[in-house]
Amino acid sequence: VIAIALYPLQSTNRFILNFEKGDELIIEDGSDPDWYMARHINEERRGFVPKSYLNLDRFGGEER
After folding, report:
1. Which numeric CATH code is attached to 2-56?
2. Percent of the chain with pLDDT over 70
3. Which of 13, 19, 34, 41 sits most deeply, having the most CB atoms within 10 A of its CB?
């Protein structure tokens, strides 16, 4: 599933994925009620992302 970042996120926590507004992220795990495990679409960086920071509707919540 591909999601679009609604807001930027910059954290010093190494488990949190940093990104900018508009970045495309691949959701790898959504089992937590508040967080996704995600990675940047063009990079190998991965980490936790607050679910409220992402929009899955752009691609209908499906893989493109």
Report:
1. 2.30.30.40
2. 89
3. 19
